[in-house]
């Protein structure tokens, strides 16, 4: 039961701004969400409906899970100081 991972265009732009080493770490983490959308260490974000985050060093991936359609939608990618700002 694999989930389809969809990355928003804004998240793709955020990802491209990062260094290649950080990009490869985050891309492998994003790809792993198709197998396990709620890995150990993921947290549900308070005040946001159905949004989660996973950490990779100082960087965060914010995503939502649609269990009925088996979709993981990556919303934001970035440094921890910038990721939670609206």
Automatic annotation (TrEMBL):
Parts forming coiled coils: none
Superkingdom field: Bacteria
TM annotation in the entry: none
Keywords associated with the record: Toxin-antitoxin system
Family: Belongs to the RelE toxin family.
Protein name: Type II toxin-antitoxin system RelE/ParE family toxin
Organism: Drouetiella hepatica Uher 2000/2452
